Amino acid sequence: xxxxxxxxxxxxxxxxxxxxxxxxxxxxxxxxxxxxxxxxxxxxxxxxxxxxxxxxxxxxxxxxxxxxxxxxxxxxxxxxxxxxxxxxxxxxxxxxxxxxxxxxxxxxxxxxxxxxxxxxxxxxxxxxxxxxxxxxxxxxxxxxxxxxxxxxxxxxxxxxxxxxxxxxxxxxxxxxxxxxxxxxxxxxxxxxxxxxxxxxxxxxxxxxxxxxxxxxxxxxxxxxxxxxxxxxxxxxxxxxxxxxxxxxxxxxxxxxxxx
Length: 259
Ligand SMILES: Cc1cc2nc3c(=O)[nH]c(=O)nc-3n(C[C@H](O)[C@H](O)[C@H](O)COP(=O)(O)OP(=O)(O)OC[C@H]3O[C@@H](n4cnc5c(N)ncnc54)[C@H](O)[C@@H]3O)c2cc1C
What we know:
Strand order of the largest sheet: 3-10-4-5-6
Bound molecules: flavin-adenine dinucleotide
CATH class of the largest domain: Alpha Beta
Low-confidence stretches: none
CATH architecture of the largest domain: 3-Layer(bba) Sandwich
Strand content: 15-25%
């Protein structure tokens, strides 16, 4: 999913590298297969790396909303005005994905220079283009929301978080904190603010996308535990919070080395 996000194209190479490594090895892969406990009965060791699933935010009317998975899989129709529930890393990524109209600017140098207002220092002293940044407006009207009253995007990476915030701000994406999600209805997303649920309002959007956290996908791990089969659980299936690919790979590598 990460490689679908504009700016994260390097994940294509990362996946391709693993595919090549698998092809060159004697490892048997069975794709498009949902593993069940009976399929695993004859193995000496079982490693569960089943990842995460979206957390249920428990919002009235949430069946009207889309999950970030449906959106990034390209399986859902997204309208022209969108509210994104949850302004963590995935909320920011989904906003970036939905804001792009014309492919990823990371893959188009001229577009990227124009967006950020960067030019050749030989042309303009300091490399800052005379007219400043000239971003394309977002392809949709996007509002990124969070319950916390802190600044949206505060928890993003220290060295890159400001880029994600600045990019979306340049494209006119609205970011709001301190909201309560009262319900999702036909007329849009009903919000209020603060502990007292003041200032009721309706965001009249045609699509609501849920990016409200993740939890370990442990269906298989739990089913194995129920029949007394021991297994190693790694990656998002182990701990979903603050998950990144580095942690998942690190855990997998160390476990493999220990077996
Ligand atoms: C939008 C987005 C952006 C991200 N950006 C970044 C980033 O910039 N940097 C970064 O480091 N990380 C990023 N991540 C996180 C990164 O993708 C995860 O940390 C990493 O994929 C976790 O690896 P995992 O092996 O635990 O699970 P996953 O990679 O999620 O793999 C789990 C797999 O198990 C499969 N599965 C589940 N149950 C079964 C079953 N019963 N049988 C067979 N298969 C099953 C699932 O279908 C899935 O393919 C991003 C994630 C998302 C969604």
